[in-house]
Hints:
The protein is an all-beta fold.
Amino acid sequence: xxxxxxxxxxxxxxxxxxxxxxxxxxxxxxxxxxxxxxxxxxxxxxxxxxxxxxxxxxxxxxxxxxxxxxxxxxxxxxxxxxxxxxxxxxxxxxxxxxxxxxxxxxxxxxxxxxxxxxxxxxxxxxxxxxxxxxxxxxxxxxxxxxxxxxxxxxxxxxxxxxxxxxxxxxxxxxxxxxxxxxxxxxxxxxxxxxxxxxxxxxxxxxxxxxxxxxxxxxxxxxxxxxxxxxxxxxxxxxxxxxxxxxxxxxxxxxxxxxxxxxxxxxxxxxxxxxxxxxxxxxxxxxxxxxxxxxxxxxxxxxxxxxxxxxxxxxxxxxxxxxxxxxxxxxxxxxxxxxxxxxxxxxxxxxxxxxxxxxx
Length: 359
């Protein structure tokens, strides 16, 4: 993301994309597959937002806002605590070490059970998206300026190394085997990283089918990537092993997050125009836009509650007394775009909306 707004990863942040679960390509009854808003909450506060992140194991939802990271109960959406002195964009949690990290400068590391700060970690660049990679148990902090990725050990918080990705990273996804896939927004491709060597091994060009990839979904079982692009407003579906483009599908305007739910075999993209696009994977070669859900303007980042098969999006609305004078979350037009709409308001008072979409 570009400027401090908010909150796949995701992403750049972004981990809840790869939860385990049974997968079937069997079609469900049409009435049973209608998504809708099932829960919402509003919290007054100040400061911008960017990525939202679900810690599914500990049932917490994290939203960086202003100079702190807010924690909510993932089931009730009630406030559950804060991480102070953390002006961040996104969050990732190492479920084995039970350590949380946020993409700030410096990076803040905390105990995922108690929310107590453990240490801060100095990093270079401008931290934006963030991702936990399960094979090596490392956290990737992404930056649009070099170094494009700083790699941190999830157990002790030490910096393992940095990577020049050859472009500006947005959301990323890991296959848990050796490969990390990263949307390079300014280069219109997906970078592939070997997580053992910390080297870029390939760039999957989107072939003019989509530019400005910002959100990323990944079907790890069938090796399929879903790159959510700004222009045109398109999901480019690729083979994760060779980058071959399989198809394209329309999405809404101003995407800034995406994901994949292996339990339902659905990819999804959240957009600044107030829509959430649901894409059904009928088979590894057949895909369709299943539904477009109306959410709220600038609710452009998302995360997956894998227990309930629900998608969470966030946005900011101005406080009632300042609504006439203060723009809602983001700059520019409601759909945002590659350059605009990344800031979460001007830092003044505003209502943080948490919106849960499910069946």
